[in-house]
Amino acid sequence: MANDPICGMYVDEGSDSITAYRNDIRYYFCSNSCKLKFERPEKEFRALRRSLLIAWPISIAVLVMTYVIHFQYYLFAMLVLSGIVQFYPGLKFYKGLVDAIRNRGTNMDMLIAIGTTAAWLYSAAIVLVPQISAVHNVYFDSSSLIIALILSGDYLQHLAEKNATSALDKLLKLQPSVVHRINGNGISDIDAKDIAVGDKLLVKPGERIPADGVVLEGESEVDESAISGESMPVLKGKGDKLIGATVNGAGSITMLVEHAGADSTLSKIIAIVEAAASKRVKIQKLADTVSAYFVPLVIGIAIASSLGWFFLGSSGLSVAVLVFVSVVIIACPCAFGIATPAALLVGSGKASENGILIKSGEVVELAGKIKAIILDKTGTITVGKPSVTDIIPEATASEEELLYYAASAELKSEHPIAKAVLKRAYDSGIKPDMPSSFSYSTGMGISAVVKGKKVTIGNEKMLLDSDIAGDKALAKILDEGTGAAVYVGVDGRVIGYIVVSDSVRKETKDTVSELKALGIEVWMVTGDNDKVARHVAMEVGINNVISGASPADKAEAVKRLQSRGVKVAVIGDGINDAPALSQADIGIAIGAGTDIAMESGQVVLMKSDLRDVLKLFKLSAKTIAKIKQNLAWAFGYNILLLPIAAGALVPFAGLSVYESLPILSAFAMAMSSTIVVSNSLLLKRTRL
Fold first, then answer.
1. Among residues 109, 212, 376, 573, which one is catalytic?
2. Is 376 a catalytic residue?
3. Range(s) of the domain holding residue 205
4. Considering the entire predicted model, what is its pTM?
5. Contacts of 169 (CB under 8 A, 6+ apart)
6. Which of residues 501, 530, 547 is at a domain's end?
């Protein structure tokens, strides 16, 4: 069984079901009306507005004729006017009724169509064949106002849902309409939809990056906040990855398109947010069961109540009809159906705005039950790329001199250590000079000539092979440290040492502390050696460490914790951690929107910031609370108001209560779903 994404009704996933596809996800609908609202919401919204402009003036006119102005043939005038409302604005309910019968199911339109038709047909019969009843009360005002009120409720719900999906709307608007494609020596403007993998594009200052790709030429800062939630611009140069829909800064960039269309990061994010809201969670099962039997149950209650008041209460035919109409109209299965999806949609949208992609609604429910978290080391606890952590000059040299010669010698190298040294030099305001010669010794280091001086950078073997004088300082650094220590020699003498290591993320220690405060057991499982693993674990406050672990070992560690009955989350980079991410109750991929991260985890932390795990837990708790509130409202509303519609107030207020109860029932029903969506919208105010 599936849920209609528009009204939330239970739908049988049969071959004759009404379906539609979006982002490779198949959706099921209880009626073509819901399908059209899903496929072309703005067009259906305009049609709804037109219906309201017809229904309300006529309904008010009928109301005035019923209670204020009486003239010859006014009953026939009400018959005609209310008929217009019944069969033009109200036509959508009859279409939904036909769809329900055709699909051997039930929907909200069935209740509305049956209820309003009963009131209108009874009133029409009184006007056309007055002798059928001694009481000549007509209820054209009830049938017309019920339709007008319910359409108004649809209108309000649409406005609320539009607000709820604003995060998705913002994402959809991020794609530029025109891009600049490079053809040989020329540039032509093309529609963004025509971008193909392999295209070379020019991105001008201030423009959005049109697709996922890599920088070929140029350098610029790129604002990635719309995708990752990261507030600071990121400097991009040759070889750096670009994410579509991010905003270029002050520089011009030439890029090569690697992913476009449905394969782009933006399209995947939109698909993930939609999918998270469309998948049912366990807490929804009770609501699904109620929705499946709700409409037949309501019709049964309506018939029983109507017959009971007619035969046992001697109420007469007109009151019996109004009892039937009140019960059928006041019921609202939609509130059950959308209670969970509405909260999930707002919650997943809020998460995406903060760079957290939740792929499955189940994650929201499971997050509050997690009692153990396994962290990978490289790229999760640590940054994942080397950086200079120590600069140790000899007594005869300065730190600036050491960095200058090292950075200049490394200018022609693509090694990760070279990049780390160059970054430290640039950050320190040191401008290196291009070496006049350069050579690389595999596994040992490099040699270069900088301003006539021979510079050698490498490990201890390189030191010995180059016959450069040094002491035991390097060996001491290697014994005590956990990174890679290299010496820098100039003209046959060591002028100092540079230690390069994968530094711990600045937020890791505090995040681990907060996770422990939540009662969560924190583990580090890494493929790195025990010495490095213990050093990093001690630095961030993790007591449970498994080192030298293969991908299979990581998955086995998850299984061992699960065998104790513990719900486990795994946080990794989505590459060598894929088996563990899949085995975990919640797999959380950390890694700035890479393809592997997108595919391997149920949650993707786009900013690669461990603090977002805490945000995930907080938002999940808030979302589950909203779901429970919505379901409590849906159950409470129907449990309280169905008996009232069936006649619970008659002993206190008399049968005259039914003169206004059908219209009040329509108002209550129209507001029910709107209240559920509006309550879900409060999630947007959650501070993460």
1. 376
2. yes
3. 176-266
4. 0.70
5. 162
6. 501
